[in-house]
Specification:
about 400 residues, alpha/beta, 9-stranded mixed β-sheet, 12 helices, about 30% helix, 4-stranded parallel β-sheet
Length: about 400
């Protein structure tokens, strides 16, 4: 691939490659005792991508990722993108039949796995033949560290275009069997631009990431958009309220996302009044509403912070509406605003084909959307949505129910 073709690339891994050229030795990721600069993280991804291809995987092969939060979870996703593979994140809490279903239904040819979870694969009928440990002996970590340390690590170019599939992102399966949303590079990169714009990301955010990376929110709304703008991110394996409060108080994190249940645990923690929220300036939550008393406690403890909630639809697209603070007061039942790349479906001639099942939802069209939902493991081709459902090029966006606090100064 020549330099011009490379420069025109707009894939997920190109986000990192561009940031590496812009930010060089600035810290990109921290995890435990490891620190990755942008340029070393980019080399690590090249080395990991080459390693995956050396195992016999071919562009388009599906690679499951079954692990806890770590720097290597991020490296694994970006390496799949750079190698032209399709990443399949799997909930690390799934076992036995539920795990077997996703591995089989996705048609995964390989699995990236944490050593702590590897024994669970023994109980799975359709475990892939290729098993790649993320950490430990003979792991992707060792490959990544060697690649990062070598300035001559060869670059990998898969030839993927922005409409190439990069991820199968499954729903949780709470109301039916999990369904895979077929995500292209264009969909995810558009998602990142929308998030950077709406959520006010900046180079000095010093973000703390504790929610599961297998979930779309933490990975695609926060970690990757952060890498796009050149901020430094700290990843924590599991969310522990005591550990989080100490990190926010002592380590200078300015940006933090958590589900409302975790914010409640932080606000009610016995050390909350003593430790507070440190230098936090951007607080985010999503997925459900936040109790107003908790918002008031957080606002009182961090009056210079601004908080934003975002909603998405994991079945067919990513973040679609944002409710950002615009005043000193708590805003209830705020409908939010659409992301920068969306438009109402009713503004296009094709809107007549969009019939959301829930009348309370609003239809939008934008490049963040999945190309299809569901997969057929025999043919490994996307299965179009069933008749009467929302077509592949549309998303149903559920407005957030509550917006939290802000002040005029958000420095």
């Amino acid at each position: 691939m020549d330099n011009l073709e490379s420069a025109r690339g707009n894939t997920v891994d190109d986000v990192l490659r561009r940031s590496a050229s812009r930010f060089g030795e600035r810290v990109a990721l921290r995890f435990e005792d490891r620190t990755w600069s942008y340029v070393k993280l980019d080399r690590a991804v090249d080395a990991a991508a080459a390693h995956l291809l050396s195992l016999g995987l071919e562009p388009g092969s599906r690679v499951a990722s079954y692990g806890l939060n770590s720097d290597l979870y991020v490296v694994g996703f970006l390496a799949c993108s750079r190698a032209g593979l399709v990443h399949v994140p799997i909930n690390s809490g799934l076992v036995a039949r539920e795990l077997d279903y996703l591995l089989s239904q996705s048609g995964s040819s390989a699995v990236l796995v944490d050593p702590a979870l590897r024994d669970r694969l023994a109980d799975v009928e359709h475990a892939p033949q290729v098993v790649v440990p993320l950490r430990g002996d003979g792991s992707l970590l060792q490959v990544a560290l060697a690649g990062a340390a070598d300035p001559q690590t060869p670059q990998v170019f898969s030839g993927s275009s922005d409409d190439t599939v990069v991820q199968l992102l499954y729903t949780s399966g709470t109301t039916s069997a999990p369904k895979g949303a077929v995500m292209t590079h264009r969909a995810l990169v558009s998602e990142y631009v929308s998030c950077v714009t709406a959520l006010d990301f900046a180079e000095d955010d010093e973000a703390l990431h504790v929610m599961p990376l297998y979930h779309s929110a933490q990975m695609h709304v926060f970690v990757l958009p952060g890498l796009m703008v050149g901020s430094s991110s700290t990843i924590v394996e599991k969310p522990d309220p005591t550990d989080i409060l100490h990190r926010l108080s002592d380590d200078g994190h300015r940006s933090f996302f958590a589900a409302p249940t975790l914010w409640v645990a932080l606000a009610n923690h016995p050390d909350f009044e003593k430790l507070g929220l440190g230098r936090l300036r951007k607080a985010y939550y999503g997925a459900s509403i936040m109790p107003v008393p908790v918002l008031q406690r957080l606002q009182a403890k961090a009056p210079t912070s601004g908080s934003t909630t975002a909603s998405d639809n994991p079945k067919s697209g990513r973040s679609q509406r944002f409710c950002a603070p615009r005043s000193m007061r708590i805003v209830r039942t705020a409908p939010g605003v659409r992301c920068c790349s969306s438009k109402p479906a009713s503004s296009t001639p094709r809107a007549t084909t969009c019939r959301p099942a829930n009348r309370a939802r609003s239809s939008t069209a934008h490049p963040n959307c999945a190309t299809a939902t569901g997969t057929n493991p025999r043919s490994r081709r996307p299965r179009s949505p069933a008749a009467g459902s929302i077509p592949a090029t549309w998303c149903a966006a559920t407005p957030p129910a509550t917006c939290s606090w802000s002040t005029a100064s958000r420095t």
